[in-house]
Amino acid sequence: MTVEPRPALADVTRGRLLYGGDYNPEQWPEHVWREDVELMREAGVNLVTVGVFSWARIEPRPGERDFGWLDRVLDLLDGSGIGVCLATPTASPPPWMGARHPETLPRDPAGATVWYGSRNHFCASSPVYREHALRITADLADRYGDHPALRLWHVNNEYGTFCWCDTTARHFRGWLHKRYGDLEALNEAWGTAFWSQRYGEWEEILPPRRTQYLTNPTQELDFRRFTSDALLECFTAERDVLVKRTPNVPVTTNFMPLFVGQDGWAWAEHEDVVSVDLYPDPADPFGPDGAALGALVQDLTRSQAGGPWLLMEQAAGAVNWRGVNHPRPQGLTRLWSLQAVARGADGICFFQWRQSRQGSEKFHSAMVPHAGRRSRTFRQVCELGADLGALAEATGTHVPARVAVLHDWDAWWAGLQQGRPSERLAYTEPLRAWHRALWERNLLCDLAHPEADLSDYALVAVPHLYLLTDTALDNLAAYVRGGGTLVCGFFTGVADADDRVREGGMDARLRELLGIDLVHEWWPMDEGDVQDLVLRTGDPGAPDDPDGACGPTAALWREDVETAGAETVAVYRGGELDGRPAITRHTAGAGTAWYLSTLPDPATLRALLGRAADEAGVRPTLAGLPSGVEAVRRGELLFLLNHRGEPVTVLLPAPATDLLTGRRYGRELPLDRHGAAVLREAPPAPGGG
Ligand code: GLA
């Protein structure tokens, strides 16, 4: 049997970047729709997501259908040449579902019902919920499968609901049965000899509900794996209904950014188009929650997609869910949108098109805010539409990276357990710090699963993977011995796939690779504690690092490691670990493996990763840039992005033309505060260098 190739993002973009947002016309009288479409055209919008929360409108009572309004919306959009990303409305079942079928509502760990009156109130294991969700999905596909406006299916919205009900318990047992085969294996994997937790019957097993004291950590880990899979079943069931009826229309679902609840690697394999929602904090434009978070999420999404991806949602101004919700300074939305395009996005969309006047999100910004078409926001929305229109040639092109940062949800989940050496160690802190260090050095990286083929990467960074499978460990060993450079962070390779601690405090294969004999103890640090480091060999301090001058320090975590062949690059100074190795480097086979047993300060981390990259032959996209200026090459284009709050001048490697303005530059390119340029470089002069 031949399998037809699935449609892809290229079938939606058709050679131009997508631009638009969530469109919720059911919140507005019809005369507003006409203005909507007029403004969409003015802004250059070419794709809107319709119907995400329209289940109660389409199916006001069980089994009834009201499609008339949606027919008119789709016809109107089509008449203006605006494509539709049509959503299945299954993220927010109508009140009648919860009222008639309370078993579709999720239960919390203490058994309390999570009621309707908000959204995402469904139990992924409920057959009743699934049946209704598939029915409305099928009806939507039957009705609109041939509609000329239809470009892309958007299934559900930001999957991530957990449930601990009895139906879930049965489903969980089935999942465990498949994973372990028999109870003996489950008892072994969960370590139920501890605290008399041994199970004698499958029926005794529960999701990790509220308990008296600490819950079994492997039960917790398996429940996270199960929940990700249960939600994925909901997604693939809807996807299959759509694919059967509309085989030529690609299917996506929008991920939350760096979201703990789903195994994003496993999910991405089931999508035709990978899309993500991204809401960096405008109060922190160049900080870890601003552009740095954006770069990380974008690199992750591109890596999940294996190519171009779609930014499904961002905010045009303030969100409404932070403690204090700041609007975006002039130019920031443009800058962050271009950052996404630089890092592989083929479309930039917002939540939402028109700002709601009622409901829980009426203070969340939109492309058309309460202030309307004369607003500063709408003007910037129109300008961004024009900018994206000028970048059609970026569509579908690739963003090649020579560095991989390893990331794995299993390791993240395993590290969430209670009763750990330090509650201050959050999985994402080292991940974000390391990625940020690479980003600030303009060393472009992909993210990769620890079992993925790493042979194309010159440098592999592992900020912190507490859990590593045997396959992953063999993969890392083969990578290094084959000539790769590995930089490995603390508290890595500690547990196996069942969350069983490896002997020696770290897996023996990894210790051998790193030239480490054993880990005596972990020495986590309190908030505000600073540990001095002394560098022994090499000079990881870069002369252009202003904060490198104070001498290297570290925070969060320390380890007392015994080396066996590794060279000591830095030692701890002061305290109990005075003089003990903090950072090591080891040659293994044809490659090199570094170990960072602590979290160095940002300048030191930048310098260390910079040195490792340099030794591995990886150069920054552009050298000598002022700090805060990001450079990314995508296809033939060079993106320069000024994240600083003041103007800068960048020295160009070659004369170039900015596609956004049509202006030509020789050697110097001025960039405004939050300014950006997308350059096509002039070909080298004949005979010249
Ligand atoms: C998410 C949701 C949207 C909206 C925005 C608000 O991304 O998908 O429906 O709630 O958050 O930021």
Automatic annotation (TrEMBL):
Start and end residues of each Beta-galactosidase trimerisation domain: 401-618
Family: Belongs to the glycosyl hydrolase 42 family.
Enzyme class per UniProt: hydrolase
SUPFAM superfamilies: (Trans)glycosidases, Class I glutamine amidotransferase-like
One MF annotation (Gene Ontology) recorded for this entry: beta-galactosidase activity
Name listed for the protein in its UniProt record: Beta-galactosidase
Cited InterPro entries: Beta_galactosidase_C, Beta_galactosidase_Trimer, Class_I_gatase-like, GH, Glyco_hydro_42, Glyco_hydro_42_N, Glyco_hydro_b
Keywords: Glycosidase, Hydrolase, Metal-binding, Zinc
Record-listed substrate binding positions: R119, N157, W321
Domain of life, source organism: Bacteria
Domain Glycoside hydrolase family 42 N-terminal: 22-389
Any one Gene Ontology BP term: galactose metabolic process
Domain called Beta-galactosidase C-terminal: residue spans: 628-681
Sites where the protein binds Zn(2+): C123, C163, C165
Catalytic activity from the UniProt record: Hydrolysis of terminal non-reducing beta-D-galactose residues in beta-D-galactosides
EC number: 3.2.1.23
Residue positions of the active site: E158, E313
GO-annotated cellular components: beta-galactosidase complex
Classification of source organism: Bacteria, Bacillati, Actinomycetota, Actinomycetes, Kitasatosporales
Organism of provenance: Streptomyces taklimakanensis
